[in-house]
Amino acid sequence: MSGTAGGKVRKWPDLPWKVRLFVTAFGFLTDASFRRNGKVNRCLINLIDCKVPPSDRPVNGVTTSDTTVDPSRNLWYRYFVPSAAEAGRMLPVVVYFHGGGFVMLSPSSQLFDDLCRLLARELPAVIVSVNYRLAPEHRCPASYEDGVDVLRFIDEKPPANADLTRCFIVGDSAGGNIAHHVTARAGEHNLRNLNIAGVIPIQPYFGGEERTVSEIQLEGAPLVSMKRTDWCWKAFLPEGSDRDHPAANVFGPNSSDISGLRFPKSLVFMGGFDPLRDWQKRYCGGLKSNGKEVREADYPNAMHSFYAFPELPESTLFLRELQDFIYPQ
């Protein structure tokens, strides 16, 4: 849990002023975009969602291209290829699901284009960043279905330089939730070439009807509030569902037994200033109790979405943990 000062729980970590300004503005515009009728003001969201096109010329040592999987549902992915692959080197493939509360952002968002470019270069790996359908227009399980269909697509049409025997399913926040459910569903399909070697939920977005200690004590922390998460769950989950739906509360009262499910090793990232931390800890405990291998990376001074800010010290630790997991000694 975060530190205390004068007996009070600290809700904000020490942040550079530019980061603090950005997350404050992002939170304000996000709240303004979430309408009371359960819809999203997409025009307002676009004010904080700068889009960038793909680039066949290297930018920071990485080229990008977009591939359509199903035009009828705007299902596509952005492919990131680092210079390490230029000599024909086959690299692990990271299938990446972006965050955004299930309701906003995309692989072309500047935030995630920059992040996936960084991961491709530093790991190194080739990245398949998935443009899944968003809620509330497309509720659960649409994003899970999209994720599985992308896996099936690249299994049949492997991208250049992608070593499909070393595939890692990765996602941050809501994307971390999607990474889990896509991995669980992938075992139902006969993937001929693609082998899921690991799943990496980065501060995954899980929840339930219960209010946890971290949610209560860290209410008002950067980017994540109970009001926001409740709104997103209501927009994402099937109509009439509560937060104990198994999509949100993976190991809750309505969950199914996964002990017999083929599920790879996991690396789960958490942060001491993330209100969702208790749900993430429960998730790790649920995997372990079902006989699954889990490694936890818990950074006491990290807020939700710390990985998106390279100037934060935890960002360097994050990259090292990823490298060690993807390239074990």
Task: Note down, in words, how this protein is organized.
The chain is α/β, with parallel strands linked by helices and 329 residues long. It contains nine helices and ten strands. The strands form two sheets. The chain has an eight-stranded mixed beta sheet with strand order 3-4-6-5-7-8-9-10, sandwiched between helices. The chain has a two-stranded antiparallel ribbon with strand order 1-2. α3 links the parallel β5 (91-97) and β6. The protein is globular, with a radius of gyration of 19 Å.
In short:
By secondary structure, the protein is an alpha/beta fold. Helices cover 32% and strands 22% of the residues. It has an 8-stranded mixed sheet with strand order 3-4-6-5-7-8-9-10, with helices on both faces. A two-stranded antiparallel sheet has the order 1-2.
